[in-house]
Each structure stands twice: as structure tokens, then as C-alpha cells.
Design a protein that fits this description.
- By secondary structure, the protein is of the alpha/beta class.
- Strands 7, 8, 9, 10, 11, 12, 13, 14 and 15 form a nine-stranded mixed sheet that branches.
- Helix 1 packs across helix 2.
């Protein structure tokens, strides 16, 4: 079963509490950046949760083969929700892009059950983001048991290490479509990408970005890590890289 449901609002939809695999993307004037990667990640997540059904590739492709005409123009933020009994795609207007981000480190261990699949832990991640907002931030940062950065509740952390771009290991976190596209852009520009396992305090003085399908590349302007307010480097690069990324397929 496939169902298109128009919400008619940019407000965040109700967070599902049952098993679900999700992908969402910014859809502007009919363009879906990273479409193949979004669908491949969705199929992989469905196969992990429901391996007894072998036809997820066909199901997901069929669900998104024909998109509603209303999103051929304008700025939208559709969300595909796959469950064991069918697929629903919510069509909603995109909220305004946020060019900067304030972060808050979530205390305690990462309690997600399926960190490599987007969807099953959304309720927990939304709760962490709500706590971050209560602390005056936009998103919450999750860390490994040893205290190194994993990712944010609703985005991926990327930073500059000299003239190289860096991110944490993909182990234990979601494979970000936006990060994959950014890696491709970096390769085109001759910028090396490295993996670094760093604690939040190690990123003080660095230029840090939070990247996501909704907001693209955003500059991290503040970061509350426990009682410490990290001082981050200002940037003149984020907007230019964001514009270049937005023009890629």
C-alpha cells in the first residue's frame, strides 16, 4: 500500500512510536537532491527491520515513482514512512532554512536501538531535541561511551581540520545522505576528507558545521557541553559550500 497524505503545514508531523523507517528531503521546484541515496538507505533500513519481506527495493521505488504534481513548484519537505504493512509519504511545506545552529551535548549514553536506521529511534531523538531547545539550542549532540562525538539528533557534524574536512567514523551512526553529497563536492574541489574521533571540547576553536537534508550546511555558532560553552571559529565558507551543494543533483 502507498498513500500520499498532504499535511498543508510546515509544522513537524507527529513522531511515530511504532517501528518505522523514515527518509525526508527538501524538494525545491521539483528537484530531489540525493534521491538515489535516500531511497537506497530506506531500502537498507527496511531490510534490516523486516528481512522476512524481500521486495523492499520494488516497494520503495514504486512508492516514489510518481510524485504529486503540487510539489513540482515551491519549497517542500516530504517524508516517506515505511512500515511492515505499507508506505506513506507525507507532503508538507518546507520550513524556512536555518543558516546557523546552536548545539547542546546530551548527557548520558546513547540509548538508541537502531542508530544506523533512520526511524525506529525518532521518538527518542525528538525528545533530545526538545531538551536542547529548552537549553536554548537547536539540536542535541550524541556521543560515544568514550565521549567522542557521534552525530546530532537531526543532523551530521562536519568540521574543518586545517584545510581538510573531517567527520566521525560512520560506525554507530546514521549514513547521512547530505554528508555523502558533501564528500562528493569536496572531492570535486580537491579537499581531502578525514575521519577524526574527537570529544566536543576538542572542537573548540574549530570551524564546525551541522549538515542535514532540510537545512543543508549550517554554521555551528554556539555549543553548550555540560557547564562549558565552546568557543568555535567563525566561518566565511559555510554559505558558499551550501550554495554549491544545493546546485548538485
Amino acid at each position: 500500500m502507498t498513500q500520499w497524505a498532504a499535511t498543508g503545514t510546515a509544522a513537524e508531523p507527529e513522531v511515530p512510536t511504532e517501528a518505522v523507517v523514515v527518509t525526508a528531503w527538501r524538494h525545491t521546484d521539483g528537484r530531489w537532491p540525493g534521491r538515489a541515496r535516500h531511497l537506497a538507505r530506506t531500502v537498507e533500513g527496511c531490510e534490516r527491520l523486516w528481512p522476512q519481506w524481500p521486495d523492499w527495493q520494488e516497494r520503495v521505488e514504486r512508492a516514489t515513482e510518481v510524485l504529486p504534481e503540487e510539489i513540482d513548484t515551491g519549497d517542500w519537505f516530504p517524508r516517506l514512512e515505511a512500515r511492515s504493512d505499507g508506505i506513506v509519504v507525507l507532503v508538507r511545506p518546507a520550513p524556512p532554512r536555518r543558516p546557523t545552529t546552536r548545539l547542546w551535548t546530551a548527557p548520558g549514553a546513547d540509548a538508541r536501538r537502531h542508530p544506523a536506521v533512520k526511524g525506529p529511534d525518532l521518538h527518542q531523538l525528538s525528545g533530545l531535541r526538545d531538551r536542547a531547545r529548552g537549553a536554548g539550542a537547536d539540536d542535541a549532540v550524541l556521543c560515544t561511551p568514550t565521549g567522542t562525538v557521534l552525530e546530532a539528533a537531526h543532523g551530521t557534524l562536519v568540521w574543518w581540520s586545517g584545510e581538510r574536512l573531517a567527520s566521525p567514523s560512520v560506525a554507530g551512526r546514521l549514513a547521512s545522505v547530505t554528508e555523502q553529497r558533501l564528500r562528493e563536492l569536496a572531492a570535486r574541489r580537491g579537499v581531502q576528507w578525514v575521519v577524526e574521533e574527537l570529544a566536543p571540547t576538542d572542537l573548540a576553536g574549530r570551524e564546525v558545521w551541522l549538515v542535514s537534508a532540510l537545512h543543508g550546511i549550517t554554521q555551528v555558532t554556539s555549543w553548550r557541553d555540560g557547564a562549558t560553552e565552546l568557543v568555535l571559529a567563525p566561518t566565511a565558507r559555510a554559505q558558499g559550500w551550501h550554495d554549491a551543494l544545493a546546485s548538485m543533483p
